[in-house]
Design brief:
Blueprint: H1 19-29, E1 32-38, H2 41-57, H3 65-80, E2 84-89, E3 103-108, E4 111-117
Antiparallel strand pairs: 1-3, 2-4, 3-4
Helix pairs in contact: 1-2, 2-3
């Protein structure tokens, strides 16, 4: 991914470091590399801490990455509303559409995690228009 989108959701407090610096320090302390994000800092921090905690709890054995992805997805669905999706693995390609403010991609140890939110819309049973080529 080529660029990282950083959104400020509140004016910076001049008495403390900006949120992006705090998040960077947290990522470094957890040995996580943020690759790309369009997500409020608090949600990014939650995803990083959940992932690190999960991997640390399975330190004596190879982590179950399907369980990791499901755990993160369920936690985000519970805390931040439905329609979160999570992919975790050593090697995968992706190209996703996400809701604004609902995307983070990071790596930890030898694994990568992609977490994103989509809008839920009912698909009509009416005939769909033909796809143009």
């Amino acid at each position: 991914m080529e660029k990282q989108v950083i959104k400020y959701h509140s004016p910076p407090d001049h008495n403390s470091p900006p949120e992006h610096l705090k998040l960077a320090a947290i990522a470094v302390s957890l040995n996580i590399r943020l690759r790309s994000a369009d997500m409020p800092f608090a949600l990014q921090e939650r995803a990083l801490r959940l992932t690190r905690s999960f991997l640390d709890s399975s330190a004596s054995r190879r982590p179950n990455l399907t369980l990791l992805a499901r755990s993160i997805k369920k936690e985000f669905d519970r805390c931040y509303g439905l329609a979160w999706h999570c992919v975790a693995g050593k090697s995968f390609g992706s190209f996703v559409t996400h809701s604004p403010g609902g995307f983070v991609y990071f790596s930890v140890d030898s694994y990568s995690v992609l977490l994103f939110k989509t809008e839920v819309q009912l698909i009509s049973s009416d005939p769909l228009p033909a796809c143009r080529r």
